[in-house]
Design a protein that fits this description.
By secondary structure, this protein is mostly helical. The protein folds into three domains: 187 residues, MFS general substrate transporter like domains (Growth Hormone, Chain: A); 51 residues; 212 residues, Up-down Bundle (Growth Hormone, Chain: A), CATH 1.20.1250.20. The chain contains 19 helices and no strands. The longest helix is centred in the C-terminal third of the chain and has 48 residues.
Length: 478
């Protein structure tokens, strides 16, 4: 009778497991909301500055507050999910992000907005890594690539859609609407996750690494803020260099701490897994280059081409369209050519299309601009799908929460570094040419530099084994 009861419970539990696509679409809700919110806000900052009656340059604090909170709390995502249960944490993080979006919409001054954005960052730091963790624990390896393609699609669409949506809402409605749109998306995600997510239980062995969270939070926060300050005045650059030095010191202290802790908040021993190490190092260089596109391209189209925010958004939207095409072809391409060959090719082609943006000029036919952005978006989407799955190909299931935390931190840091590095190169080019504002040659220099950084990812892809990821893609072993 006992065995029969256990079998009945197991069968009922299996019946409650949703389809791969349903699970992936729920997780994609969090990815989409987080990515869209970040890019929509940048378009609205000048209008918000007028509303608050302050210098537009000071509005960058709203972006920095979010990045600081996001970066500081991402390391805790895996441990928090283990302690309280992934479904509960994911729903709570979505709720926090949605409520803080409402608070942002009611902001009457910059201080209130910065505080609300800090809360948003806490929600974003938990909901995206925990969502990925749920998928990796639930979906069989043979179907991970297809499911992850649905999840990662918003990371390509939302940054391109953001300027378009932001320009439309700010032009025809109010800047407050850029936060209102998170409410229905967040509520839908919470309801769907509560109904569909499996309850994966809790694991509190080894204790919660509070000291590790403090050290990693300090190291990452100092690093993000330091990079931001390096692009400001000479005095601010000195503070930025000091903060980056502090970041290195905290990082070294954490390294020593992690070696003595049974379950550190960030487990760098995962880099001993070859596929995870390649995905981490190759992905870092590739993302540094690609993360510069949403920052450089809209500004180049508006300042260099003289386009409006709405028209530039319509043009850059073509990169996001490519993500839809990638969804239908990712599995087939990886099964046909394998991870190693696909990632090497994508690294090379992605860097080439990034370099082609340096050649953009107003005399180019619009169709040619669309073609470059569309093909470049396709290659980038395919590479992100490959990087987002090969990283976990050989990670044991019991270490999956640690792997998602470390992977998410690397993603966030490399994305932030991409924006800061491209901004620094652009500022240096402007200073070198003695101009007050950047022109097309300055943007060309910045695009060329980040394309070269992105090309460095090829050398790490070459280290992949020829059979790496075969179980994920379904490619027959040689």
């Amino acid at each position: 009778m006992g065995h029969l009861t256990l079998a009945t419970k197991a069968a009922a539990s299996a019946q409650r497991i949703p389809s791969d696509r349903a699970l992936a679409l729920v997780i994609a809700t969090a990815f989409f909301m987080e990515q869209l919110d970040s890019t929509v806000l940048t378009t609205a900052l000048p209008t918000m500055a007028v509303s608050f009656g302050i210098n537009p340059l000071h509005m960058s604090m709203a972006l920095t507050a979010y990045l600081v909170s996001l970066t500081a709390f991402i390391p805790a995502s895996g441990s928090v999910a283990d302690w309280f249960g992934a479904r509960r944490v994911f729903c709570g993080a979505l709720a926090l992000f949605t409520v803080s979006s409402v608070l942002c919409s009611y902001a009457g001054n910059l201080s209130f907005l910065v505080a609300a954005r800090f809360l948003q960052g806490m929600g974003g730091a938990l909901m995206v890594p925990v969502g990925r963790l749920v998928l990796l624990r639930t979906v069989p390896k043979a179907r991970v690539v297809s499911a992850m393609a649905w999840v990662l699609m918003p990371t390509m669409i939302a940054p391109i859609l953001g300027p378009l949506v932001g320009g439309f809402l700010v032009t025809y409605f109010s800047w407050r609407w850029i936060f209102y749109i998170n409410i229905p998306i967040g509520l839908l995600g919470i309801i769907a996750a509560a109904l569909l997510f499996p309850d994966q239980g809790r694991d509190r062995q080894g204790g919660f690494d509070l000291a590790g969270l403090a050290l990693t939070g300090a190291a990452l926060t100092f690093f993000v803020v330091g990079l931001e300050l390096l692009n400001w005045s000479e005095i601010d650059r000195e503070y930025g260099a000091l903060l980056i030095s502090g970041s290195i010191a905290c990082g070294l202290l954490y390294w020593r701490h992690a070696r003595a802790h049974s379950r550190p908040i960030l487990d760098f021993t995962l880099t001993r897994i070859p596929t995870f190490a390649v995905a981490m190092w190759s992905g870092t260089l590739f993302r540094i280059g690609i993360s510069a596109v949403p920052y450089l391209l809209p500004m180049m189209l508006q300042l260099g081409f003289g386009l409006s925010a709405l028209r530039s958004g319509l043009l850059t939207f073509s990169s996001g369209v490519a993500a839809l095409a990638v969804k239908a072809t990712t599995v087939q391409i990886l099964r046909q050519v394998g991870y190693r060959r696909a990632m090497i090719s994508n690294s090379i082609l992605g860097s080439i299309f990034l370099a082609l943006c340096a050649l953009f000029r107003p005399v180019w036919p619009v169709a040619l601009l669309y073609a470059v952005l569309l093909l470049g978006g396709f290659v980038r989407s395919l590479q992100f799908n490959a990087l987002g799955t090969i990283a976990f190909a050989d990670v044991p299931r019991e270490r999956m929460s640690a792997a998602t935390s470390l992977h998410s931190v690397i993603q966030q840091v490399s994305g932030t570094a991409g924006i800061s590095i491209s901004a620094a190169i652009l500022a240096a080019a402007v200073l070198l040419h003695g101009r007050a504002t950047p022109d097309l040659t300055d943007f060309s220099l910045a695009f060329t530099a980040v394309a070269l950084i992105s090309a460095g990812s090829v050398f790490y892809c070459l280290k992949l084994d020829h059979e790496a990821g075969a179980e994920l893609s379904g490619r027959p072993l040689a």
